Amino acid sequence: MKNFLSVILTILLVNSWSQVLAFDPPSEESKAISLEELQVEQLTNPVGIDLPQPRLSWKINAETRNTQQTSYHVLVATSPDKLTPGEADLWNSGKVNSDQSVQVRYEGKTLQSNTPCYWKVKVWTNQGETEWSEVKYWKQGLLYYKDWWGRWIGFDRTFPGESEEKFPTLGARYFRTEFELDKEIESATAYIIGLGLYEFHLNGQKVGDAVLAPAPTDYVENVKYNAFDVTEMLQSKGDNAIGVALGNGRYFTMRPHYKPYKIKNYGFPKMVFHMEIKFKDGSRKVVYSSDDWKGTADGPIRNNNEYDGEFYDARKEFPGWTKPGFDDSNWLQAEYVQEPRGDFEAQLNENMKVMQEIQPVDITQLDQNRYILDMGQNMVGWIQMKVKGQEGDTVKLRFAESLEEDGELFMANLRDAKVTDTYILKGEGEESWEPKFTYHGFRYVEVSNYPGTPTMDDFVGKMVYDNIQTVGKFLTSNATINQIYQNAWWGIAGNYKGMPVDCPQRNERQPWLGDRAVGAHGENFIFDNSRLYTKWLEDIRRGQKADGCLPDVAPAYWRYYSDNMTWPGTLLMIADMLYLQTGDVKVLEDNYPAMKKWLEYMRDRYMNENYIVTKDSYGDWVVPPPSIEAGTGQNADVKRPSELISTAYYFHFMNMMAKFAKIIGEDQDIPAYLELRDKVGKAFEEEFYNEEGYYGKGKMTDNILPLYFGMVSQEKEQEVFDHIVHTIEVENDGHLSTGLIGTQWLMRTLTKFGRADLAFQLATNRTYPSWGYMLENGATTIWELWHGNVAKASMNSQNHTMLLGDLNLWFYENLAGIQADPKAPGFKQFILDPTFVEDLDHVNASFDSQYGTIGSHWEKRRKSISWEVTVPPNTQAKVKFPVEQLSDIEWDNKVLGELKGIGGLETDPSGKVSVTLGSGSYRFSFPYIQ
C-alpha cells in the first residue's frame, strides 16, 4: 500500500498464536528483506505535528514465508548527519526485543516546537536482519498557543455588493505582504489557519496541492492549522511575497442568518499566519500576520458558497498579486479581528485534493444557448472550463444529479441550494477557470450562455475528496455485486469532506452520526480512513454538552440534540471499529469518558423504573414502503421512534463499555455495566417478546437487533431467526424491509445464523427494494431511499451512503473472509474464513493493512475450491477450511495432512479445520460440495 500510515498503539510483544505451519528452510537467495514506507503519525504531510510523542511505523518487505520481526532499533536526530548510534541527539532506542512494527511511541528527548526530526530504523527477524532504512523526516509543529506570533486579521463586515440575507453574497478576502531576505536559508516552515477556507501562495506559486482546506471543525471548540516546508520556495536574497485568499466555507456559513436557532454562524473569514525561517548562520526570522499586511474584498471571487456555488468575475483579477513588487497601494490595511475561540491544533487528517479527472461522455443542446453536459457518473467536485469570448460574456454552470423526462435538470431534490457557478470573461483569448471555494454533487451540468459552440473537450470534471488512499479491492463473479461495490466507492469517496457528510448536493451536507455507525467499518476495508474517523470522534465529543448529551450532527453545525441511542451511539461504534481495525488503544482512552458520561445521561433521563429506555428519535429511519406504488410521491422524512430499538442498543452498549473498560484498565466500572446490561436484557425480554416467536411487531429490525446483540436465549434463537427468514422469503417475496438501523446488522445476522445464501439474494436482487433496484434505475452511486426514484423530491438524494449498512463489511469479512481478530486487533493476527455462497463462482479481494497486503482469492472448480491467500510479513493468519480433516486440503500440490510439523491446528465449533500461517503467499485446494 502506498503512503502507509497506521494508528496503532497496542504493543504486541507476545505472539498468542505461537505455532505456525512449518516450512523447509529458505534458500540464501530468499532471505533478503528490507524496510519500506516508514511513517510518522500523519500520512500526507509530516510537517507540523503537535504530538509530544509521535508514533513511528514501518513495513517489512520480505518474500520469505513466515518472516517475523524479533527486534528493532530506532534512531532520531535533529539532522541526517547525526543518525548514528553514537550521535543521535533525540532518541537512540537501542536494540529492543519486540515484534512491534506499527505505532512505536517516540521515547526520546522532549520535543520542542519547530524541531526537525530525522529518523531511521533497522529490524531483526527470524530470517535475518535488514540494513538501516532510508532516512525519513518529520517536523514538530507549534505546540503552544504563545508560539504563534501572528495575530488574527480579516474584515469583520460586508462590502458594497455583499449581503448577509438568507441567500448570502460574500466574496473572497485577499491578503498579502512582502518581506526581504539577505541570508542563505537552511529551512523554512509556514503555519496557517485560514477560516473558513484558504489558498496560500508564496512568490507566485500555490503552496501544497490541498483544496478546500483546512478540515472543518466547530470553530468555537477547535481550529486546525496546516504546516508546509517552504524552504525551496523562498528567495534567500531578495524580495518575497505571501498571498492568501480566504473563502467562506463553514465559517461564514451557507445560510448565516436563516434559522439562527438551528444553524451556527461564526463570523467573517479570517486568518492567522506564522512562518519560521532558519538561516545557515544560526539566526532566524519570523514572518507573521499583522495589520501591516494589505487586504481587499474587491477581487474576482465575488461570492462563494458551498450550497450556491461560486461567482467569478475575471475582469476583477489582479495579476501578480502573490509576487513581489505588486502595487497594492489601493488595498486596505488588514484589520485585527477577534480570534475564533477554538483550540489551535495541528491537522493530522488529510486535506481534500483533486483526486481524479473525469472526461464528459456526452453533450446535448437544449435550446439556442443552453447545453447539458453528461459526466457519465454521479460525482463530487467541480468543472474546469475552457472558454473564449468577449469581455463581459457570462457563462453559467448549473449542477444536478439527474434529468427530467424532457432533458432539463432535475432540481427539486436540491431544495433551495442554487448550485450554480458563474464566470464572467475578461476577453483575453482562451481562458481556463475552475472554482476554489465550493463543490457540487452532480452528474449533469447545464451550460448556459457559452460563447460559441461548446464541446466535451472544453470541460473536465474534478473529483474532490480527502487525500486518502483506496486500500481495498473487491471483485466477484457477480456483475450486480461488482457494480454495487463501484457505486459504493463513488458515494463514499465523494462524501469524505474532512468529515463524513451525508450527501454532497442539496442544502444539507451535514455529518450525521447515524449514517456511518456501521458503514464506517466496511469503508475501512476500502479506504485508509482511520485518521478521518479519529478526527470525527474528536468532533463528536467536542459537541458533547456539560450534562452529557451528544449531538446528532458533528461538528455540530446544526443544533440537533434529539437524545436517542442510535445516532449518538456512533461514538462507541466508530471507536470500536478503529480499535478492531487498527489496534489503537488510545482511541478508546480518549473517548471513554465521553461515552460513559453520555450513557449515564441517557440512563438518568430516559430509562424508566422497568429498565426500558423510553427515548428514541428516528426509529428505523427510511424503512422502504411496502411497494414502489405505495412510495410514489411519499414524504420519507417520517420519524418512527422505537423503545425496542433504544433499549436493545443500550444493552449492546453496556457490553461494549465493559469490553472497553477491560482494555483500558477501568476494571472498576465493569460490574456496574454488566449488572445494568442484565437488567436491561431481562426487561427487554419481558416487554418485547411475543410467544409467537418474535419481538416487537415482528419487523425484521425488531428481530435482527436482539439476535445480533446476543439478547435472545439459545432455545429461542432459531424461532426468532426463522421469523426473519419467513419475513424475507414469504412476506417480502425475497426482499429486505429494513431501514437505516436494521440494514446495519442485516447481512451479518443472516450469515451468522447460516443463511448466507439469503444474504446473497438480497445483495443481488434487482427488483424493489434492493441495491440492485437502484442500478436498474440508472444509479451510479447509492441512493438515500430504497424508493428514491419515485419519492417526494424533498428527500431523495441520489448520493448517500447510509443504506449500505453492513454490506461492504459483508463483502470483505464474509465473502472474502478477511477478518480482524478481536483477540489481537489491528491485523497483527487475523482470520481468513470465507463464506462460499452457492451462486458465486469466485471472489478476488485484498486489503492493504498496516503491515502489508492481505489477499483472499477463491474460485470454484467443478467440485473443489482453489484458494490463494496472502499474509504480510510480521503477521499471522488463522486460515479456516470447511473440511473435516487436513487430508482434504492440498497445499502447493501436497496433501497438508501428510506434512510434518503442522502447527496451529484447530477445529472450531462449526466443524471447520483451521491452520495458522506465517507471512507469504499460498495456494490451497479442497473439495467443496454445494
UniProtKB/TrEMBL annotation:
Occurrences of domain Alpha-L-rhamnosidase concanavalin-like (ranges): 365-464
Keywords: Hydrolase, Signal
Sequence intervals crossing the membrane: none
EC number: 3.2.1.40
InterPro entries in alphabetical order: 6-hairpin_glycosidase_sf (IPR008928), 6hp_glycosidase-like_sf (IPR012341), Alpha_rhamnosid (IPR016007), Bac_rhamnosid6H (IPR035396), Bac_rhamnosid_C (IPR035398), Bac_rhamnosid_N (IPR013737), Ig-like_fold (IPR013783), Rhamnosid_concanavalin (IPR008902)
Residue ranges constituting the Alpha-L-rhamnosidase six-hairpin glycosidase domain according to the UniProt record: 470-815
Signal peptide: 1-22
Record carries keyword Acyltransferase: no
Enzyme class: hydrolase
GO molecular function, one term: hydrolase activity
Residue ranges annotated for the Bacterial alpha-L-rhamnosidase N-terminal domain, each copy included: 183-355
Domain spans labelled Alpha-L-rhamnosidase C-terminal: 817-889
Superkingdom of origin organism: Bacteria
Keyword Transcription attached: no
Gene3D superfamilies per record: 1.50.10.10, Galactose-binding domain-like, Immunoglobulins, Maltose phosphorylase, domain 3
Reactions that this protein is recorded to catalyse: Hydrolysis of terminal non-reducing alpha-L-rhamnose residues in alpha-L-rhamnosides
PANTHER family reported for this sequence: ALPHA-RHAMNOSIDASE (EUROFUNG) (PTHR33307), ALPHA-RHAMNOSIDASE (EUROFUNG)-RELATED (PTHR33307:SF6)
Name by which UniProt lists this protein: alpha-L-rhamnosidase
Source organism per UniProt: Echinicola jeungdonensis
